[in-house]
Design goal:
- By secondary structure, this protein is an alpha/beta fold.
- It has 8 helices and 10 strands.
- The strands form 2 sheets. Strands 1-2-4-3-5-6-9-10 form an 8-stranded mixed beta sheet, with helices on both faces.
- Strand 1 and strand 2 form a beta hairpin.
- Helix 4 packs across helix 6.
Length: about 260
């Protein structure tokens, strides 16, 4: 019978907490899950749980964890930068290797988790495969989307957008923090994200990389087209599916699970 155990991982002298899923018997593969950002993480939480349990029944070990400053892990969100969360992911990779006796593991990231996962795979020699579910590739584009989301939230609560992107940037300059989807983010982190573009050739990915474009149509986005042109070995698959990371209600992710399982196993 598959087991689920609480794990404590040391990263940057602090504790990162996660859940280790181990199959009944010897594992055939290992996966580290990289969560998306803020509100999207909440919508994805259950999806990761169900996927990890499904794969455990197929003989796959996996580890779900919270970056520092999020979930159950140590610290406050505004205390961390990209490098910290990349380091947390590398530490999680090493933890899964130790717990499952694998030399190499797979990293699976959704949205901002893909953004982190790509960079963690560049830092770690222990990553054999990379699975990206609708990943963030352009930090600048992601930052712009989050600014728009903030203004939409203002309109929903106040009836109008009380602050525009320039005013938010001014606030960040003055207070050194900015409200990103309900999380106080350091200006330095905000700038880091904006300046990080993973579409180029220098953003290396493992030879076995799957990119799932999950959207309402099968037209490949401009962002992904550029990424693919610079990474010819990436296996792209398009799925017409509701964006489960942006929904409160139930979304059928069966096609996402099935496509991922077929590719991995």
């Amino acid at each position: 019978m598959a087991t689920e155990d609480f794990v404590q991982i040391s990263s940057g002298g602090q504790n990162v907490f996660g859940i280790l899923h181990l199959p009944d018997g010897e594992a055939t593969h290992g996966i580290v899950y990289c969560s998306p950002f803020a509100e999207e993480q909440k919508s994805t939480y259950r999806v990761f749980v169900e996927h990890a349990r499904l794969l455990a029944d197929k003989g796959v070990a996996s580890l779900r964890f919270d970056y520092r400053g999020t979930g159950d892990s140590d610290g406050y969100f505004q205390d961390y930068l990209l490098e910290d969360w990349i380091g947390d992911t590398v530490a999680a990779i090493e933890c899964l290797k130790e717990k499952s006796d694998f030399d190499k593991v797979c990293v699976l990231g959704v949205r901002f988790g893909g953004f982190i996962g790509i960079q963690a795979a560049q830092r770690s020699e222990s990553v054999s495969d990379l699975i990206l579910w609708q990943p963030i590739i352009s930090g600048k584009q992601f930052h712009r989307q989050e600014m728009r989301r903030f203004m939409i939230r203002q309109m929903m609560t106040s009836g109008k957008a009380t602050k525009g992107e320039e005013e938010l940037a001014s606030d960040a300059e003055e207070d050194n923090v900015i409200d990103m989807d309900g999380y106080l983010m350091r200006k330095e982190l905000s700038e880091e994200i904006k300046e990080t573009d993973l579409t180029g050739e220098d953003a290396a990915v493992p030879p076995r990389t799957l990119l799932l474009q999950i959207s309402h149509n099968d037209k490949i986005s401009k962002e992904y087209s550029t990424f693919l042109s610079n990474h010819e070995g990436v296996d792209l698959k398009t799925l017409i599916c509701e964006p489960f990371w942006n929904r409160i209600g139930f979304v059928d992710t069966g096609s996402v699970f099935e496509t991922t399982q077929e590719w991995l196993l």
